[in-house]
Amino acid sequence: MKQPAIFFDRDNTLIACDGYLGDPSKVVLLEGAAEAVARARQLGFATIIVSNQSGVGRGLFAEEDVRAVNNRLDALLAADNSAAIIDRHEFCPFHPQATVEAYRQDSDLRKPRPGMILKAAEQLNLDLSRSWMIGDAPRDIEAGKAAGCRTILLVDPAVEPSAATRESGPIAPDFTVNTLEKAMEIIEHDGRRETTDPSPQPSPPAVEAAPDSPARSTEAAIVSTAKLENLAGEILRELRRRGERDHSDFSVSKLMAGIVQILALAVLFYAYINRNDAALPASLLLAIMLQTLTIALLIMGRQK
Ligand SMILES: [Mg+2]
User: Fold this and answer.
1) Distance 10 CA to ligand 1 centre (A)
2) How much distance in Å is there from the Cα of 47 to the middle of ligand 1?
3) What is the sign, positive or negative, of the torsion defined by CA atoms of 94, 97, 100, 105?
4) How many whole angstroms separate alpha carbon 22 and alpha carbon 251?
5) φ and ψ at 239, to 5 degrees?
6) Alpha-carbon gap, residue 185 to 227, rounded angstroms
């Protein structure tokens, strides 16, 4: 029988990365990484890392540096938990707009395409239908789904969202969690269901659980929790997107409104200084017109 695998994204899933990482001395494991990898192997999964590394194509570092970072990651995992072994590293150095010509291509290996997963599956004779993809970005979910795996999106509030994380993907993950530990709980629970149920349903509704069965009650509770986590993850991502929109809330209309407001105040000031002048009504009229224009511009700015 073919072995299933858990495909892990690398950056901001197993290790911290605030951009492009080519320096092995800067590798830092994220919380729960070693435990998750060790647990995956104990459950009978092959453990594979699939990572986009366009930093190579951008000329920021070489493929050897990626391998050095991966070796350091392996060493840190083993130091944390001797059972935390990565069976295979796959990475994609290509990018369609790479500055290094040799790496400039729209590669099938690059997530959201499933090339790295399919390549590893062929090399290690893996059963993708019983495999999982865990990652922090929508492109990880797309790649996992395209390869026929089930998917878990990791939304860790403690990790600063990367550019890839902020992208919106067309495919919803099967589960959304905020820790690797919870991801492994879902996978372990799914495995128990497969071994105890001879004809497992793909995703049985929680309400079908028999009330007098403790195992079924636990299963229902975990499925319900997973659904709640999915919903919470969606809300969190929407709030983040709104936050980003608010920070970039600039428009030409608003800039113009600010300038016209200053002009209106200047005309009012002029009218006050020359309040005994015959031109006072005309000055006041001009100030009112400018103030009206300011309000109109602000309304236009809100409707952009
Ligand atoms: Mg990532």
Assistant:
1) 6
2) 16
3) positive
4) 38
5) -65, -40
6) 14
Residue 91 CA to ligand 1 center (angstroms) comes to: 12
Domain borders along the chain are 5-181, 252-302
DSSP string spanning 61-120? S-HHHHHHHHHHHHHHHHHH-TT---SEEEEE--BTT-SSGGGBS--TTSTTS-HHHHHH
Whether 260 has a pLDDT exceeding 70, the answer reads yes
pLDDT for position 65? 98
Q: Tell me which long-range contacts 217-221 makes (C-beta under 8 A, separation of at least 24).
A: 219/189, 219/193
Q: What is the DSSP string of 245-257?
A: HHHT---HHHHHH
Query: Token match 């128990």: residue?
Result: 192
Q: Which residue has the higher pLDDT, 268 or 197?
A: 268
Beta-bridge mates of residue 133 = 7, 151
Contact (CB, 8 A) for 27 and 78:
no
Ligand 1 centre from 50 Cα, in Å?
A: 10
Rounded to whole angstroms, how far apart are CA atoms 24 and 27? Answer: 6
Cα of 134 to ligand 1 centre, how many Å? 9
d(CA 296, CA 254): 10
pTM attached to this predicted model: 0.65
Q: Cα(48) to centroid of ligand 1, in Å?
A: 14
Tell me the pLDDT tens digit for each residue of 35-61.
Answer: 999 999 999 999 999 999 999 999 999
Alpha-carbon distance 59 to 20, whole Å? 11
205 pLDDT higher than 60: no
Collapsing DSSP to helix, strand or coil, 8 comes out as: strand
Cα–Cα distances (Å) from 293 to 27, 142, 168, 254, 268, in that order, read 56, 48, 38, 11, 15
- The fold of 5-181 is Rossmann fold (3.40.50)
Distance between Cα 101 and ligand 1 center (Å): 25
* Residues whose CB is less than 8 angstroms from the CB of residue 195 and which lie 6 or more positions away in sequence, other chains included: none
Residues assigned a catalytic role: 9, 11
